[in-house]
Amino acid sequence: METQQQPPDGALALEGVDTTKLPKLPPAKASESQWQRVSRQIVDFLDQLPDYLGSFFDKNKQALLTFGLILSAIVTVKVAIAVLDAIHGMPLLAPIFEIIGIVYAIWFTFRYLIKAETRQELNHKVNSFKQQLIG
Fold first, then answer.
1. Is the pLDDT of residue 10 over 60?
2. 15-49 pLDDT tens trace
């Protein structure tokens, strides 16, 4: 019976191969500790993330608010343009709106602009609306 040579550190040896000249891998415990160290750093970062974000928001509150308002204005304009393009693309809708606008302009002219007393009434309504807006 042949005696088999036991490899050091519990590693498995290949049968019939001289393993003394093969490079050795580090033990598994070292990579586990490295993995644990990396996972601990990730967990620490995620634990401190709300504090980082809170301090960033506190330092840059005005700039972030301005950026948000500008971004929302751009989105609003884009949506309005898309809606108007969709309306313009419908065959009969654009001429109908045009006719409605012409009829309203004619009505407004006859109602408020022809007589002096109705112009004064319109002026009074506009001034009261200004006062409501300004305060």
1. no
2. 776 767 777 776 655 556 788 888 989 999 999 99
Q: Compute the distance between CA of residue 132 and CA of residue 59 in angstroms, rounded to an integer.
A: 36
Tokens 């004064």 correspond to 120
Cα–Cα dist 49/41, whole Å: 12
Rounded Cα distance, 123 and 71, in Å: 37
Mean pLDDT, to the nearest integer, of 102-124?
94
Contacts of 11 (CB under 8 A, 6+ apart): 24
CA atoms of 127 and 135, how far apart (whole Å): 12
Is the pTM higher than 0.90? The answer reads no
Give residue 50's region: left, alpha or beta (phi > 0; psi -120 to 50).
alpha
HSE, side-chain direction, 13 A CA sphere, residue 47: 6
